[in-house]
From TrEMBL, chain A:
<keyword id="KW-0460">Magnesium</keyword>
<protein>
    <recommendedName>
        <fullName>Protein farnesyltransferase/geranylgeranyltransferase type-1 subunit alpha</fullName>
        <ecNumber>2.5.1.58</ecNumber>
        <ecNumber>2.5.1.59</ecNumber>
    </recommendedName>
</protein>
<dbReference type="Pfam" id="PF01239">
    <property type="entry name" value="PPTA"/>
</dbReference>
<keyword id="KW-0808">Transferase</keyword>
<keyword id="KW-0637">Prenyltransferase</keyword>
<keyword id="KW-0677">Repeat</keyword>
<comment type="similarity">
    <text>Belongs to the protein prenyltransferase subunit alpha family.</text>
</comment>
<dbReference type="GO" id="GO:0004662">
    <property type="term" value="F:CAAX-protein geranylgeranyltransferase activity"/>
</dbReference>
<dbReference type="GO" id="GO:0005953">
    <property type="term" value="C:CAAX-protein geranylgeranyltransferase complex"/>
</dbReference>
TrEMBL record, chain B:
<keyword id="KW-0862">Zinc</keyword>
<protein>
    <recommendedName>
        <fullName>Geranylgeranyl transferase type-1 subunit beta</fullName>
        <ecNumber>2.5.1.59</ecNumber>
    </recommendedName>
</protein>
<feature type="domain" description="Prenyltransferase alpha-alpha toroid">
    <location>
        <begin position="5"/>
        <end position="326"/>
    </location>
</feature>
<comment type="subunit">
    <text>Heterodimer of FNTA and PGGT1B. PGGT1B mediates interaction with substrate peptides.</text>
</comment>
<dbReference type="GO" id="GO:0005953">
    <property type="term" value="C:CAAX-protein geranylgeranyltransferase complex"/>
</dbReference>
<dbReference type="InterPro" id="IPR041960">
    <property type="entry name" value="GGTase_I_beta"/>
</dbReference>
<comment type="similarity">
    <text>Belongs to the protein prenyltransferase subunit beta family.</text>
</comment>
<keyword id="KW-0677">Repeat</keyword>
<dbReference type="InterPro" id="IPR001330">
    <property type="entry name" value="Prenyltrans"/>
</dbReference>
Amino acid sequence: MESVVDQGWADVERTYQDEGPFEIMPIAYSIEYKEKMDILRTLMKNNEKSERALKLTEDIIALSPSNYVIWKYRQEIIKELNVDLKGELNLFVEYAEENPKCYQLWHHRQVIIEKLNDPLDELQFIHDMLQYDSKNYHAWTYREWIVRHFNLWDEEIKFSDTMIKDDDRNNSAWNYRFFILTEKPDNDIEAVLKDEIEYAKQKINFDPTNQSPWMYLKGIIEKSKYKLADFADELLPFCENLQKIEPYKYALEYQLYTNESILKTLNSEKEQEQQKDICRTICSKLEECDKIRKKYWKYVRESY
Amino acid sequence: MSETFEKHKHIKYFERCFKMLPYQYTSSDTNRMTFLFFCISGLDLLGALDDVLTPDIKQKTIDWIYAQQIHPDPEIGNIGQCGYRGAPFLGHKFEPNSKETIHEPYDASNLAMTYTALICLIILGDDLSRVNKKAIIESISHLQQKDGSFSPVIFGMEYDMRFLYCASVISYILNDWSGINIDKAIDFIKKSQTYDFGISQGFGLESHGGPTFCAVAALSLMNKIDEGLKSKKDTLLWCLSRQVDGFQGRANKPPDTCYSFWIGAAIDILGGYHFLDHEAHKKFLYSTQTIYGGFAKYPEIDFPDILHSYMGIAALAIIPEKTEEIECLPQLETRLNMSKKTFDKNFPKNIFWNNN
């Protein structure tokens, strides 16, 4: 190992980790990590904000990217030294490939972009990150932040469509579509509802075993001023047509929710009882079709 | 790999971890307290804590935990920074009996570490008499954000559901909720419920098993389940829908060992555990055990890690009707994620509860 002392640390006293008389849950640190931390502790204690400290934080971040304290220290150094912030973004790229789910890396990027007060090419960058893992929660979280912070809503429905086209089982992309449609300033759900129902139906037709468009369909209707019952004439036959050859559990679930929604609109006891029978029949089918949850569907059936 | 529960291999695995974690854990050097929690609670669930940790080592472990506590600084007042660090990584002196901490730059407690430190102390039979309750509760109030969520540390980090849970457990253990604005916390939880009634890390994000557990458990500790969930029934159904054989954390994702705990525990708290298919669930969990003991994230991964190892065992402990191979596991206190038996035995010793 290259000795860290040769790199100009001779003047720095070492601060060792004090474990007391018995080390609990020790980690088999590498010599490099141990020696560099011994120096870094002293620098942090003195709050030294220097080029060499900046470099050392990078060395240690490479070994321990989740160390939020060191990230904080680095951010303080950056502030003091007027470091080129765009260069900091490259640091992210270097480590994100190996640690795409490291909270601190994403947080640092957000801090830098916020300071730059410029969204740069971040939307493209996030798209690139999503190529590695299209469901990366951090990437989607960051995208929502960018879009909201810099008011970049316009192209985002198209983007959700791109991602859903790539993989229609990407539930993150469905959730994102919902987020854009319902949070965009001056959004008007009722105005897009018809198109969105069509959109979900199209994806369901393509693959009725995909839960994401089913949940989206229910969610977007319930978010509007309408109830599921209001779309029963269109969507109950849609569910039935799908199941001419074989039953699909999500179609049955959707039928159940819609029929429960209708039940709430009925006043006469007789009508209610007929409607409950419809619900019970669907539950029985679910008990057959969704075996892993059969105890639950039985319970629902018996609860009407 | 296995078709049954490999209890003895798991004991050996945690015993090895307790002695030394491999180099790869350096990447989470600040989180050693959570690793200690996985190890101690894991051994406790396996009924092996007393065999692996002698009374002397237990006492030393308790002292080590107390040495990570940050107390108020009498000079400058380090408000919002009291509680526990995850390890002595900043180089402070080992002082398990101290009542003051001389503040140093960047030295701050972390809610996840405070939570796991307190649970470890309870499992080890400590009465919490060295815990600086007042300072911790005061710090919690500085970590809550305007939207009701919590940051783990005072110098602003990610704010999400995880730390709302940690703050709730701490408040519950210390029997003092004055550090949390409960209305705001509930508001945050409500806003984090998505169109499918699962719960996300924060407003607008995708519903996910981890925050769903955190929110449901926090609400339960606050005794506010009905106020905090838009529809308890629909959140339960979202959770039940995550069972594939094991549990997925989000719709259309593969099952993963740890969600057997996150989702399983949420279902348990919501009172729906008897609806599950336990056989399919156990079969999946057994398949993620590794030949070295411990559990991996997925069946196709050969090496265990400490988080999934603990979560696998905790998940099995939730199952109310224990078949022969898991009979050895005590029931889980799911909200705190520790053995119910140990909780019943040790929790009343906790000085913040027995004086009331």
